[in-house]
Amino acid sequence: MNTTATLSFLPWLPRSTRQVLGAVVTLAQCAALLLPILSHAVRIKEIASVQGVRSNALTGYGLVVGLDGTGDQTTQMPYTSQSLSNYLAQMGITLPPGTTAPQLKNVAAVLVTAQLPAFAQPGQFVDVNVSSIGNSKSLKGGMLISTPLKGVDGQIYALAQGNLVIAGAGAAAGGSKVQVNHLSAGRIPDGAQVERSVPSPMQEGTSISLGLNANDFQTAKRVAAAVNLKMGEGKARALDGRTVQVQAPTDADERVSFLAEIEDISMEASIPSAKVVINARTGSIVLNQAVTLNPCAIAHGNLTISISSTPVISQPNAFSTGGQTVVAEKTNIQIRQEPGGLIQLPASTQLADVVRALNALGATPQDMLAILQAIKAAGALNAELEVI
User: Which residues contact 174 (CB under 8 A, 6 or more apart)?
Assistant: First the structure.
């Protein structure tokens, strides 16, 4: 980049001044080149959704039949045989009085769950998940009999039935067992047919509300500004950090077209708030790009206690009378403490610097969980710490 040629039209300035101006021009040109890289455009449909347009959870209790001897042990799960007896009674088959409950090995009691999508209409199909609630060893090869799926209001919204798809396999013989993946839960693609639709409030009123996926006042402001720029001034206003109200046409077809245009509007995404997400069960740690680190010093060491037991056998001499073999144990206990040096972490303003500073500690992910919490408590971690 030739800054001398850029400032050739200022020959009357001193050489030192032109060099300083040339450096400023160079930095400005570099910033202009980096600006398209740093900016990130997103569509409104990726960061917000129309309030009231959502799915609904459905659940039901049913029976899986046709298992190859891997069903519930009905002596321990009496509700399985009771459910089958009730089902047979609905089919007109009743057991003679005094007959004991049938002991079945090919039937398993299950819970069936599904998500009823928004705008789902009667006759459409949805996927269902089937999970065993008894002591069934495997649901592989089973078929779910007709099961009503209810919403939280107790109304039936779908009927589920079909053959299960189990993404696993297993075999057992002679006390040995081999299993791949999970055998007590499966899925039925398009296994439930919708019987009732859920009313949607999308066509009600003269306005709609866009709900942001995350609570952010800056994003809400930018969404309202982008809608006003595209649809006209005064069409949208931000009510809070998560809701943007938009004036919409009252005609159904016009409102759908209006929402389609709004969802496709592009806008510059705001920088997310600094957050560190920690999964204490798996030891996973995720940091976003806004995390920064203040100068701090950390000392970390491990204390290891090792206990080992060695059997010691004492036998009597050969041809001795009355002697007995004595088995004793010799216990060895060792305590080892690894040195924990004091490590100074410099201030880090970029994610790469934060990662480089934390890697310098040489700690395992499990140890890093405690270190990050201690850094946050000391006020040196500029981020929200979320443990899931």
Answer: none
How high is the pLDDT of residue 254?
A: 93
Q: How many CA atoms lie within 13 A of 124 on its CB side?
A: 13
- The domains found in the chain, sorted by start residue, are 56-194 (no CATH), 205-268 (3.30.70), 275-313+327-387 (no CATH)
pLDDT confidence of residue 5: 45
Burial of 160 (0-12, 13-18, 19+ CB in 10 A): buried
Q: Give the three-class secondary structure for 251.
A: coil
Q: Report yes or no: 187 and 164 within 8 Å, Cβ to Cβ.
A: yes
Q: 125-151, pLDDT tens digit by residue?
A: 999 999 999 888 889 999 999 999 999
Quick one: which H or E segment has residue 287? Answer: strand 284-287
User: 241: which residues sit within 8 A by CB, 6+ positions away?
Assistant: 212, 215, 216, 217, 219, 220
By residue count, the chain amounts to 388
**Could you read off the pLDDT of 229-249 as tens digits, one per residue?**
999 999 999 999 999 999 999
